[in-house]
Every structure is written in structure tokens, then in C-alpha cells.
Amino acid sequence: MYQYDQYDHLIIRERIEQYRDQVQRRLNDELTEAEFLPLRLQNGLYMQRHAYMLRIAVPYGLLSSKQMRMFAHIARKYDRGYGHFTTRQNIQFNWIKLEETPEILSDLASVEMHAIQTSGNCIRNVTSDEFAGVAADEIIDPRPYAEVLRQWSTFHPEFIALPRKFKVAINGAVEDRAAIAVHDIGLTVVHNEAGEIGFKVMVGGGMGRTPILGSVIREFLPREHLLTYIEAIMRVYNLHGRRDNKYKARIKILLKALGVEEFTRQVEVEWEDLKGTEQTLTLEEMERIIAYFQPHAYKSLPAIDPAAAHADNKAFGNWLKRNVKAHKVPGYAAVVLSLKKTGVPPGDATAEQMDYMADLADRYSFSELRVTHEQNIVLADVEQSQLFDLWQEIKAHGLATPNIGLLTDIICCPGGDFCSLANAKSIPIAQAIAERFDRIDFLHDIGDFELNISGCINACGHHHVGNIGVLGVDKDGSEWYQVSIGGAQGNNSAIGKIIGPSFSAQQMPEVIDRLLQVYVRERTPEERFVDTAQRLGIAPFKEYVYATPIETAGRLVGEDEYA
Amino acid sequence: MPKQIIKGREIVADDWNLLRAEEGSEAATVATLAVPAGRVILPLATWLAQRDALSARAAAGEIAVWLAPDEDPVALRDDLPRLALVAIDFPKFTDGRGYSHAWNLRSRLGWTGELRAIGDVLRDQLFSMQRVGFDAYDTRPDRSIEDALKGLTVFSETYQASVDQRVPLFRRHARPTPAAGA
């Protein structure tokens, strides 16, 4: 993975001093809260319901065991012993004191980490495929280009006060695991006919109040032009994106207002004299960065069927089926550690679990881990012959729930328990649903499933692209939940359709149950829920869900249960 | 005490008068604003409407123009040689259009004269302003200008190219490659 050199260290060190001084001036009232707000946001510090929340960047989701141990340390020293992995492959701590944030940044810097641009109206942490570098279906490793973008976007002087936040995702595999279609810029690393490396450039995707899938504005951008072309996009957006209404300020609205053709034309005109300037990447620089992402020293191993020696062990079989992914090197596999155990808020990990996952990485996987946008953790390079041992170990630590990609692998934002933007709680809904369907055979029968829950229209829980999406809404001061079906992420991204009037929290597990009943009744043998939902449309689902009243006597767990 | 601004990296006295129409004024009102004597920074619309009448004063170096965030500096392309300075207004420091205007003025319109940031100009934005081509800062009068000066020297290295440094870090320094086995 990438390692800081003297320049990275210098910039981070100077940043911490700048920020330490800003905090001090805020505490001395030399800065008003309004003036401090964008400064702290650009450092990932939000004011939440109970305390400050600090979001730390995990560049493109890649993490060393040393860095994971630092998260455990931060959880213990500055928080309440746990942290929350986010849908943008970052980590958040929810109980932070403003006065301590400069110290946290110093601790982070000691392991080459920071919180720069994890929030605010700037270019955010670039996200990517959690299986980058190891996926069997990978064409080109996207991580070096994500790192190039990280450096270029860090404190870019011109793009620090954009109309709104700006998210970039990059994918280099056949299957899109980086959700590029719902990003402000979605890049796919591709080869052209001549075999040269470049990018397919998609712009203007996003969720929030107006979910839109991105549009391709360039089929092939030679890789050396990556930064100048993105600069062109950013300048068009910075100058022409709306600033009168924060809900209409994302680049997707500008692109929609201009139309793809006109937007593309403006970008190309803007790029004309940028193309070939000094900011153009050199082959030497690209190769320097690529050198940091070389394959590990893999052993020469035969590919085996890890299930063969344990054919009678159904639980292990379930785990292999859901939590173990194909690796490009024979004899190796990628393992997903589930942070979706029933009873635990999705994406949460305790300090003990973090330390333990770091140990696992040291012992099984070249001391590296990845954070997934589904809020789980990946050990990307495990020998197949060690999978059984690993599975036995992690079971005891609550990390082996065989539910990756299933109904209970819920994407969920922190919601109203923590977030001051939220209209409604989201974690208790996720937990109630997980409890209701905590039957592994049933989950495996239902199969591939994306259940995504957001506590408000900002859509941090990606509800628009959930096969079932749940959105918390506020109606006259009480919390209600709007349900959509048929959304999807990845290569066949789609925005879900709302089935009808919203439900109370207590009704939600039953609503999900009824939707599943329609699926089980209507599915053809090969169909996943999303296929059935997209084939039939909402009508049969709607009819059944609303046919009879739903009791509201379910049990919900609140924040106190896990605080 | 005379008014002070930051110019380059120094605090200096400044005798330019900023002419602003009342907020919400009609374009016609802005166009016909009376231009006081002395050195004056005019709204773009005032300049465009009165530039012929002001040409002697411009030739004497008394006239400058300021741009609002929604005003394209291209409107000044032919007039730049006649202006003593160009200012860009930041009505709110969170509106970042002025950064791109500055970049365009320096990089595309060839402006080499003074480029001054006016409005909600605060210490914590000065470093970026300097990078995109500003060289003068009329900082907010309710804040210490000595304090603001510190904002210009926050970072000693930067990754990307901009107006102050046309060559990105990776072309300026031989950066290391990973140690073997890393």
C-alpha cells in the first residue's frame, strides 16, 4: 500500500498545526461558530446530537493493521470504546471532544492517516473497490489512480468552497463494486483498442433528494490526462453549480439543467488549454505510485476447494458461500468479516474487535485490511488452506455471521440516534429487521439482497439503490418510514420506486416480511428479489403489503441498548 | 489610522476607495453610480457604463474594477491594460467562485497587475487565495490584520499546480519509490 514520504508527512504536520490553532481560536472565541464550521467540517468534525463526531479518512478503504490498531486506541482513549465504519469506507467516532481533536490528528499522523476533506463542500475521500488488487474479475488495479487523486485533491486551493460536497469513486473490475453511478464523478479504468490505459468518465450521479444515475461524458480519457480533465470538470462546476439552494447544488443538478451534451461541451472547452500542462501525469509518476500497489509475495499454492474437507459442516459451508470471495491468485481467497451481527448497529466495531481484526490481518493477510462500502471489513489475501482455522477463530469474536450480501447485511446510516440531520432513527429499524429474520436458512433461501436504510433524505444509507430501500421521514414531529423497491447498485444500477404511504417503526419488520412473501410467491427459480421486483413493478408488492392493517406491537431497541 | 491591507506578505496603508451600490440595487442604478474623486474600485457595471468618461482617470491610474461572484472576468478582457488593479468580491467566504475567477484572470486573461480579495476575507482562506493568484487582501476590518498575515504561511509544500506554482509536487521533487518488499 502507499507509504508517506517526507512531503506527505510535512503537509499533514503543517495541517495539524493549522487546525490546532483554529480550534484554539474557536475556544478563545476569536472565531465564530459560523466561521469555524466550514473549517472543522473540512477536517471531518461534525456537531452531532450529543457530541462531536470525527470522521477519519481511510483512503479508498485500504488500511494497515497498524492503522486499525490506532482506531482501537482512539476508540478507547477519546471515545466510548467503539467506532462506526461508513458507507464511504471511512470510520467515524461519535463521542469526541473538540479540545481533543488536535491530539487525535497527531495520533493519526503517526500512522499516516488524517481526517482531511472527509466532510465539507470539497472533494471528499476517493472510494474504490474493496477487492481492488485481488479480485478475480479485475482488469486494472484502480488504487494507484485513487492515490494520485487523493494527493491532487488534498487542499486543492481552487476547489475548497464548492457549491456542495463532491464525491469521486473509481472502479477497475468487470463488476462495479464501488457504486460509481451514484457519485459526482465515477471513473472506470479501462483499456482502449490500442491497449492503452485510461478512464471512462461518468459525471452527475448522486443520491440525496434527487437520485440520479451518472452520465458518461467521455468513453476514453488517456490516463495521463486524469488530473487536468477532472480540473476542467471541477472548474465548470465551481463556477456554474447552483449556490442558491443547497438541495440543488450538487453537480448532478447542473448536468441535468445543461443537458449531458452541453455539459460535456463546456468541460471539453475548459480542458482545451489545460491538456498537456504541467499537471499532466508523467509515466514516471504513475509508475512510482503503481509500485506501491504491487502484489504481495504470494506463495505458489494449488487452488483447492476449501469446503471439501468439511463437507458435513453446513455452517462453514454457509460462510464460504457468502463471506469468501474469489482471488486472482490460485490458493488464495478474500474474506469478508461481517460487522452485521444481529443486535449490533451495522458497521459498528468495538476497540477489542479492531485490535483483533488487526491481529488477524497480521496472521492471515499480509497485515492489510479493507473497509467495504457495505460497512464490513475485508481480509483480502487469505490462503484457502487456512480458511477453516480462520472461520473457527472469528466465530468466537462475532465476525463470522454468514450474511454478506444477504438481507441482514444491511447498509445503514447512524440516523437519529446520533446524527443531527436525521429525521428518524435508522439503527433500531435495522436491528428490528435483523432480529425478525435472524434465521440463516431463510436468509440463504432469499439469497442476494441489498436492504439499505437512511434516516433522512441525504441518503447516507444509500436507500435509493437498495433492493428494498427504507427512508426515515418526519411527519408532524413523528418518525415514519417510506419504502421503495427495485433499486440496485453496481453494473445495473437502478433507483428504487416508492411503494406507497409510509409506515411506523414498529410496522417495518412486518412490511419487509410481506414484501418477501410476494417475492417467494412470484419468483422464478433463478430470480433474485431485485429481478422479481423489477420484472413485476411495485403493483403486486403494494397490493399485498397494504391489503390488511399491520400491527404496531413490534419491539425496537434504542440507543441505550448499545451505548 | 489609515486603512490597511495585506499586499504580498506585508501590511501596508491603502488609499483605494471601494464603491458599492446599496444591496439589491437595480443594474441601471449601479451603472449610473457617481464615481468619487481619488482612487476608486468600481463595480463592473459602473465601469462598463462609464468607461469612456473615466478614461483620463483610468490613464492616471485612479481606476480599478471589482467583480462579483457571478461576473465573468472575461468581460474585462479588453479593458485590463487600463485598470490599476482588479478586485474580486467574496460576499461570503463559503462562496468559492472567486477562486476560479482569480485563476482565470491570471492563467487565461494574462492579468499581471494587483489582484485583490475583498469582502469576507479571513485568515483561514488566505493561503488558498494566494495560491490561485491573489496578491492583495482587504481583510475584514473587525479582525486583526496582523493575525490574518499568518494565514499566508500555513503550508510550505503543496501537491498540486496552481497560479503560484505551475509545477506540481511530483515534477518538482524526486519522490521516493517504495522500499523493497513494501
| Beta-strand residue fraction of chain A | 15-25%
Compute the gyration radius of chain A: what is it? Answer: 23 Å
What number is the mean pLDDT of chain B?
95
Order of helices and strands of chain B: EEEHEHHEEHEHEHH
Tally of helical segments of chain B: 7
Please, how many helices of chain A? 17
Lateral strand order in the biggest sheet of chain A: 1-2-5-4-13
Written description of the protein model:
The complex is a heterodimer of chains A (563) and B (182). With 563 residues, chain A is α+β, with helices and mostly antiparallel strands. Chain A folds into four domains: 6-109, Sulfite Reductase Hemoprotein, domain 2; 134-290, Sulfite Reductase Hemoprotein, domain 1; 308-395, Sulfite Reductase Hemoprotein, domain 2, CATH 3.90.480; 411-561, 2-Layer Sandwich (Sulfite Reductase Hemoprotein, domain 1). Chain A is built from 17 helices and 20 strands. Chain A has helices at 6-27, 33-41, 65-78, 101-109, 143-153, 226-240, 251-258, 260-272, 283-290, 314-323, 351-364, 387-395, 427-436, 440-446, 508-522, 529-536, 539-545; strands at 45-47, 52-56, 62-64, 82-85, 91-96, 127-128, 168-171, 185-191, 197-203, 215-222, 324-326, 332-337, 348-350, 368-371, 377-383, 411-412, 451-454, 468-475, 478-485, 497-498. In chain A, helix 5 (143-153) links the parallel strand 6 (127-128) and strand 7 (168-171). In chain A, helix 1 (6-27) runs antiparallel to helix 4 (101-109) and helix 15 (508-522) packs across helix 17. The longest helix of chain A has 22 residues, at 6-27. Chain A is globular. Chain A starts with 5 loop residues before the first helix and ends in an 18-residue tail after the last helix. Mean pLDDT of chain A is 94; it is low at 555-563. In chain B, helix 4 links the parallel strand 6 (85-90) and strand 7. Chain B has a single domain (4-172), classed as Rossmann fold. The longest helix of chain B has 11 residues, at 97-107. Helices cover 25% and strands 18% of the residues of chain B. The model of chain B has no long low-confidence stretch (mean pLDDT 95). Chain B is built from seven helices and eight strands. Chain B has helices spanning 27-31, 44-50, 55-59, 97-107, 123-131, 145-149, 169-172, and strands at 4-7, 10-13, 17-18, 40-43, 63-67, 85-90, 114-119, 136-137. Chain B is α/β, with parallel strands linked by helices. Chain B is globular and about 65 Å long.
